[in-house]
Design brief:
Structural class: alpha+beta
CATH class of the largest domain: Alpha Beta
Order of helices and strands: HHHHEEHEEHHHHH
Number of strands: 4
Shape: rod-shaped
Radius of gyration: 34 Å
CATH topology of the largest domain: Endonuclease I-creI
Largest sheet: 4 strands, antiparallel
Length: 252
């Protein structure tokens, strides 16, 4: 079963308590379905249950949508009849295929009442209302009463956020490591040049000690290098000495 049908399966189990809400949902289904559905289909089971519960024999031509609960029922009926939702692991997309301008306008009005603003396009002579933002899709699922799907969507969103955060941290740490390795390689190159040209032993004591420590600990950070010096030196002091070594190497 597709993800969209799983959502419709959940919505088919949602039966409003009030007759006015049942009429609103049935009105949406009659507006969005081109003909009576197969009684064994997902929308068909809900459709004929609503007709039985409301004692409506023929197609429902109108409904009072002034109440929020009725507007929720209308959106639910529209999705059951002509809705589609992509699996959130593959991307966020929810749409309603509206057979007429009137049904598209009424559905838009209902969604707007819950601060959901769908975009609109045309497809094969129909008007398609669609949502691409995860938050708007979550709001729409909540409007329709698809609580299980909403919980699943939110858990995926949290999982994606955590994964993205970890990826950013890993990338940041990798960049810092690469930067440290590159700086260390340059510093060691400077020290080796000094050793070749004039010898490290001819440097002033602070610089001589700094050069030996850097060669001994090529992967150490500036803070770690400072701890190896005697007496210990802060990060800025280590950086100052390494810059002096670099300047000497440049002169040579």
């Amino acid at each position: 079963m597709s993800f969209a049908n799983e959502v419709k399966e959940e919505l088919s189990e949602v039966l409003p308590n009030g007759r006015h809400c049942r009429i609103a949902e049935l009105f949406a289904m009659d507006s969005f379905l081109p003909k009576e559905p197969d009684p064994d289909s997902l929308p068909g089971r809900k459709y004929f249950t609503l007709r039985k519960k409301t004692d409506i024999v023929y197609r429902c031509a109108d409904a009072d949508l002034k109440k929020a609960c009725c507007r929720r029922a209308y959106v639910r009926g529209a999705f059951l009849s002509a809705g589609y939702i992509n699996h959130p692991e593959k991307g966020y997309s929810l749409e309603f295929v509206c057979p007429a301008k009137e049904s598209a306008e009424l559905l838009t009005e209902c969604l707007n009442g819950f601060s959901v603003e769908p975009k609109q396009t045309g497809r094969k002579g129909c008007i398609v209302l669609y949502l691409k933002e995860a938050e708007a899709i979550a709001d729409t699922l909540n409007i329709m009463g698809a609580s299980r799907t909403l919980l699943y969507l939110e858990s995926l969103r949290v999982e994606k956020d955590v994964r993205n955060l970890l990826n950013r941290k890993v990338n940041c740490e990798a960049a810092n490591i690469a930067k440290t390795v590159s700086a260390s390689a340059n510093q060691i190159g400077d020290i080796e040049k000094i050793e070749e040209k004039i010898g490290i032993e001819n440097l002033p004591e602070p610089l001589r000690q700094m050069a030996k420590i850097r060669l001994q600990y090529p992967s150490a950070s500036l803070s770690e290098l400072g701890g190896y010096l005697d007496p210990p030196v802060g990060k800025s002091g280590v950086n100052h000495r390494l810059r002096k070594l670099s300047a000497i190497a440049s002169e040579l």
